[in-house]
């Protein structure tokens, strides 16, 4: 009897402590949970609801329209062009920024005295106010006043209207995107490179694997695999969200050649106030991001197990 | 015989040593040649910005490529930029918005991350799953409903509108939880036995131990929101509330093609604060990127 009484006696304070802990924990998590509801979950619900209506900001009544927003999005030439342009943009920025930043990281990594100087310079675009720099790019690329045109004239090629030629505008924006992304990716690659043990390279040298390219192919590239995958995914997401350069430099032009997905959503939702239609476009945008994010989690998982 | 073979091997070695020195020099040359080409590409807009900002208009519009201006016109351009647009106001707005966002993010995320890492409560796993899902939702997705909500309660064109979507950083919760999980339980138990409340444990014991993660996150959050254009562009139409990117956009729309000197001076003024902070806290920035790795 007494053996049972002892735990009975000590149980209430322990249980009280457990209850207190639960209350404290709930209190700690509550602000975050409320904000999670208010800024993510409820908006997602509203977005889903709007997708099936004809809501416009300031409209008196809202009607259920079923799937008509979705079907009109899929047949909308503007949207299709925006999606295609976005994917083309990603297809240029992704290899460009990943390959160039890998090259820079591998070269910078082995420098001793000049390493920090190169690091600072390549990282400058990441920390600079991008809109300000985009404005400067506009001037750099100016067909008659910019330095690039001046150089091209001097070479006898002549002026090129980078941002007002429909076939050149999107690639030009992509080059600016690469310019902005190289330093960021370089830092990620440098972090990856610093985890590769030095004696591997020494061992390779003894084994007669002396050339830079040999060493890169046999050691650096395979060991850098997880970092590379990670950089590829984050770069795709960043490139897919291209907006700033379009909004500042081209406004989607010339002739719709730089219309991209986020800019289309911005115009539909916040300029034309066709909220319901913009909601559907937002969902399509989210699906693409989710596909990239799932890839990212899979990759991160592999990185951990590696 | 021995000496002969020694001489022979020396003779065979000699060219290869010269060869290897030559090869090292060549590889060094190629390395720096590639890196400097990249440097030229990276620095081109920065240099052009600085040069144009001290050029007089007639030299800007002179199509001849000239690096250094014949006439120093910096004072006029910078004065023009500062008087024709409230540039310092833009910077102050950026500071208010980024500071406000960061403070609330930390106040909300730290206790939640601690609860997720160290406390037991019903729904803990569900909350963590929601946090993970939240990581996949970019700011542009909830923008539309939040905008409608802010319009309904008449809060557009306020600092609050600019900050509210970012008060919750699921990323901060995720990052801090990882950090807190490795914090030794023994110390927490000891603190409890000493009569410390959970509140004190979070802010006085666990938080200081996570300073590297907090600093890294702070840099990440500040840079991201200082440079964000999308959301301010949507909710702010009052020039006096504009953060640097939006302010720059207003200014360049007003001055487009007319006054490149003042425009580049403005760009210099708005780019400088973050760049100067970066030059002084370079390690923190780079740690911030490698630790967070997401943009």
TrEMBL record, chain A:
Major localisation: membrane
UniProt cross-references to Gene3D superfamilies, sorted A to Z: MetI-like
Domain ABC transmembrane type-1: from-to ranges: 83-296
Topology in membrane: Multi-pass membrane protein
Residue stretches spanning the membrane: 87-108, 120-140, 168-191, 223-243, 275-295
Biological process, per Gene Ontology: transmembrane transport
Keyword Transmembrane: yes
InterPro entries registered for this protein in UniProt: ABC_transporter_permease (IPR051393), MetI-like (IPR000515), MetI-like_sf (IPR035906)
Keyword Cell inner membrane: no
Pfam families listed in its UniProt record: BPD_transp_1 (PF00528)
Keywords: Cell membrane, Membrane, Transmembrane, Transmembrane helix, Transport
Family: Belongs to the binding-protein-dependent transport system permease family.
Name of this chain's protein: ABC transporter permease
Annotated source species: Manganibacter manganicus
Taxonomic lineage: Bacteria, Pseudomonadati, Pseudomonadota, Alphaproteobacteria, Hyphomicrobiales
């Amino acid at each position: 009897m007494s053996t049972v009484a002892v735990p009975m006696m000590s149980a209430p304070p322990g249980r009280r402590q457990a209850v207190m802990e639960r209350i404290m924990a709930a209190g700690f998590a509550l602000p975050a949970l409320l904000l999670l509801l208010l800024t993510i979950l409820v908006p997602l619900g509203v977005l889903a609801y709007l997708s099936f209506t004809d809501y416009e900001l300031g409209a008196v009544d809202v009607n259920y329209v079923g799937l008509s927003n979705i079907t009109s999005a899929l047949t909308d030439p503007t949207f299709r062009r925006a999606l295609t342009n976005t994917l083309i943009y990603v297809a240029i920025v992704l290899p460009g920024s990943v390959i160039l930043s890998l090259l820079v990281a591998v070269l910078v990594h082995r420098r001793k005295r000049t390493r920090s100087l190169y690091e600072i310079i390549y990282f400058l675009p990441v920390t600079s106010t991008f809109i300000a720099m985009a404005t400067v790019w506009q001037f750099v690329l100016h067909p008659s006043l910019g330095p690039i045109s001046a150089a091209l004239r001097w070479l006898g090629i002549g002026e090129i209207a980078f941002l007002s030629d429909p076939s050149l505008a999107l690639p030009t924006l992509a080059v600016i995107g690469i310019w902005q992304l190289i330093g960021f990716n370089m830092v990620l690659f440098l972090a990856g490179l610093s985890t590769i043990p030095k004696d591997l390279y020494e061992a390779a040298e003894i084994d007669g694997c002396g050339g830079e390219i040999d060493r890169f192919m046999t050691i650096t590239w395979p060991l850098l695999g997880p970092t590379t995958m990670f950089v590829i995914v984050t770069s795709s997401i960043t490139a897919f969200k291209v907006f700033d350069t379009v909004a500042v430099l081209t406004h989607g032009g010339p002739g719709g050649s730089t219309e991209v997905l986020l800019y289309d959503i911005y115009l539909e939702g916040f300029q034309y106030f066709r909220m319901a239609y913009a909601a559907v476009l937002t969902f399509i945008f989210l699906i693409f991001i989710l596909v990239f994010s799932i890839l990212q989690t899979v990759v991160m998982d592999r990185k951990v197990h590696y | 015989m021995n000496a002969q073979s020694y001489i022979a091997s020396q003779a065979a070695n000699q060219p290869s040593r010269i060869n290897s020195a030559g090869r090292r020099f060549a590889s060094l040359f190629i390395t720096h040649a590639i890196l400097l080409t990249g440097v030229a590409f990276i620095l081109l807009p920065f240099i052009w910005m600085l040069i144009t900002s001290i050029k007089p208009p007639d030299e800007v519009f002179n199509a001849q490529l000239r690096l250094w201006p014949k006439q120093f016109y910096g004072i006029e351009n910078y004065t023009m930029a500062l008087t024709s647009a409230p540039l310092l106001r833009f910077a102050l707005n950026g500071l208010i918005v980024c500071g406000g966002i960061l403070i609330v993010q930390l106040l909300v995320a730290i206790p939640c991350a601690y609860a997720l890492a160290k406390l037991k409560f019903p729904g803990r796993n569900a909350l963590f799953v929601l946090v993970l899902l939240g990581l996949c939702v970019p700011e542009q997705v909830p923008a539309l409903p939040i905008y409608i909500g802010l319009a309904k309660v008449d809060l557009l064109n306020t600092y609050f509108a600019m900050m509210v979507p970012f008060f919750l950083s699921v990323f901060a919760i995720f990052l801090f939880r990882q950090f807190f999980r490795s914090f030794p339980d023994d110390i927490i138990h000891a603190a409890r036995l000493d009569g410390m409340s959970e509140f004190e444990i979070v802010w006085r014991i666990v938080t200081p131990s996570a300073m590297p993660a907090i600093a890294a996150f702070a840099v990440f959050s500040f840079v991201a929101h200082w440079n964000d254009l999308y959301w301010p562009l949507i909710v702010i139409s009052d020039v006096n509330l504009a953060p640097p990117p939006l302010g720059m956009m207003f200014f360049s729309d007003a001055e487009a093609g007319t006054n490149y000197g003042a425009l580049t001076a403005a760009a210099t003024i708005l780019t400088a604060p973050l760049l100067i902070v970066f030059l002084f806290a370079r390690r923190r920035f780079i740690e911030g990127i490698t630790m967070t790795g997401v943009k």
